[in-house]
């Protein structure tokens, strides 16, 4: 007989005919849409969106031995389902009970050559944390199976979904997607070498302000080493002031978002002002790359670009309405065209050059690879 959630009529147990066989996770407020489509797909199933008021969750029951086939159908047919979990065991939400149930599931599910991680999500108030469960259950599963812990890319993750006083031990019917995976190229180290030389954008005050903000946000998005606003002819003082203020506002706006959302330190791009020709003289001996449609397609010179990025700093010159004067080309290490037959709008050049550089360096084999974090404990906390 399955355990029952408080104030909820469907028992959370895979072995009970009326029990919860599948837990579907969605974006918040998409659970009713997903539930409607799941009901159309599986007419005989009991489908409950937002059980106990928990948004982003759908319970699917009444499937019995067909639960895995049903889970695979949901994964294949319902895009609103971000994660589809098959309930293997349901027990009281007590660490000892959870540990014993998880070990039983692991013995059926995990082989010594596999890697695993415990992913715990708690809903309700408990005397333990998700980390407590991850550590305790992870240690027990490792001992029982001989499998190794891999928090980033486990071949056999186990999910512990806790709803108040009931815990479901689940296996996934959907894969995991993570930002960083082994062998993905790492770009920040090389982007930090980039020193952008950006011409002042001229026009009416509102256009200058908007362009400055976009340029600032773009530079900060990629956390380049520096941004220098270049003057190659007389510019009205008001235009320069509006442009510089807007660039700083764009940088600060993006920077504040980054420090709130990134789990690492963030580089705030410094801004300088220089005269173009003195800038070129000052950076003599350093790599200088000019962006211009008359240059070589960037992927055709990827090996040369990789050589330039062995330097401590790579200077990249970007025009605005007017291109970089041809006389500067003679002092450039490379003149590159980012997209043949296309003249890129000023506010799109920084994102385009950053992405093109990363792609070219990756093709040249010049980027380091993500090797994964050092394994420390069998846990992945999520409250």
UniProtKB/TrEMBL annotation:
<dbReference type="GO" id="GO:0005829">
    <property type="term" value="C:cytosol"/>
</dbReference>
<dbReference type="InterPro" id="IPR041730">
    <property type="entry name" value="MJ0421-like_THUMP"/>
</dbReference>
<dbReference type="InterPro" id="IPR004114">
    <property type="entry name" value="THUMP_dom"/>
</dbReference>
<dbReference type="GO" id="GO:0002937">
    <property type="term" value="P:tRNA 4-thiouridine biosynthesis"/>
</dbReference>
<dbReference type="InterPro" id="IPR025849">
    <property type="entry name" value="MJ0421-like_SPOUT_MTase"/>
</dbReference>
<dbReference type="InterPro" id="IPR029028">
    <property type="entry name" value="Alpha/beta_knot_MTases"/>
</dbReference>
<dbReference type="InterPro" id="IPR050102">
    <property type="entry name" value="tRNA_sulfurtransferase_ThiI"/>
</dbReference>
<feature type="domain" description="THUMP">
    <location>
        <begin position="69"/>
        <end position="173"/>
    </location>
</feature>
<dbReference type="Pfam" id="PF02926">
    <property type="entry name" value="THUMP"/>
</dbReference>
<dbReference type="GO" id="GO:0003723">
    <property type="term" value="F:RNA binding"/>
</dbReference>
<dbReference type="GO" id="GO:0052837">
    <property type="term" value="P:thiazole biosynthetic process"/>
</dbReference>
<dbReference type="Pfam" id="PF14419">
    <property type="entry name" value="SPOUT_MTase_2"/>
</dbReference>
<protein>
    <recommendedName>
        <fullName>THUMP domain-containing protein</fullName>
    </recommendedName>
</protein>
<keyword id="KW-0694">RNA-binding</keyword>
